[in-house]
């Protein structure tokens, strides 16, 4: 299988026939073996019935994964990837706002040597104040924190080489951070402007609350990227900093007592200094425990701490 399209679905019964027709129109001109993996994420409308009909009409290309209940877009994307077979995976929303006609352009860019091509909704057709502006702010924050600079993390339309998706799993609401995780295992990333259309049928599933979730998830992503292999640097560094502040406070109180005869216990700095000293030692101990957990995680699963792109030369 050359190309797998992974499409999460939640209450999109009117859009599904349209997107399937658009996909057929695109791949009729491509000399590629392809499949579409729809993942029904607990839809409450007749989306499942439409998907069953599409699968029956095109058994060669259509596969449908049905969740028992709504698990969220990240879980749907992860399930679609797990049930796909293509060497190239293209993620696409079912709402017809992304244009399947852009898929050949993304695949052609992959052929230039990239592992991941991200879509950029340069002329976005969503509500400016509730969707576009918060999204732009979130994109800027993610780019600044992670160092992976993309204009549009929220655009689902992306093309991946399967190898770039190996080495990590998706949890919670982490699907928008796939480029960051892929970059962490050495993927070569670029982005291209893609078309974006107003929604014709159904309702948007996300609003302003999604921006808050992105910010919270960003803390997790930053920790996983920078400290999952060396947690002692975070916890130990924090502990050393707290102990250093504590020593300065206690030294200040000691000097006041010796030279100016001011009682140590009369100052609130004594309680603060002792508290910071205790917290500092606790943070260092947490770092040691985290180091043990990190080693257990890697060694129990024989999970290497590196990724290999290729091996050249003589084979053993």
Give short descriptive properties of this protein.
alpha/beta, 316 residues, seven-stranded mixed β-sheet
Task: Write up what this structure looks like.
It is a single chain. This protein is α/β, with parallel strands linked by helices. It folds into 2 domains: 3-226, Alpha-Beta Complex (Spore Coat Polysaccharide Biosynthesis Protein SpsA, Chain A); 231-300. 47% of the residues lie in helices and 12% in strands. It is built from 9 helices and 7 strands; from the N terminus they run E-H-E-H-E-H-E-H-E-H-E-H-E-H-H-H. Strands 3-2-1-4-6-5-7 form a 7-stranded mixed sheet, with helices on both faces. Helix 5 packs parallel to helix 7 (209-227). 32% of the residues are buried. The mean pLDDT is 87.
What's the gist of this structure?
The protein is α/β, with parallel strands linked by helices and 316 residues long.
**CATH class term of the largest domain:** Alpha Beta
Number of strands: 7
The CATH architecture name of the largest domain reads: Alpha-Beta Complex
Structural class from helices and strands?
alpha/beta
CATH topology of the largest domain: Spore Coat Polysaccharide Biosynthesis Protein SpsA, Chain A
| Main β-sheet description | 7 strands, mixed
Instruction: Give the ordered list of helices and strands.
Output: EHEHEHEHEHEHEHHH
Strand order within the widest sheet? Answer: 3-2-1-4-6-5-7
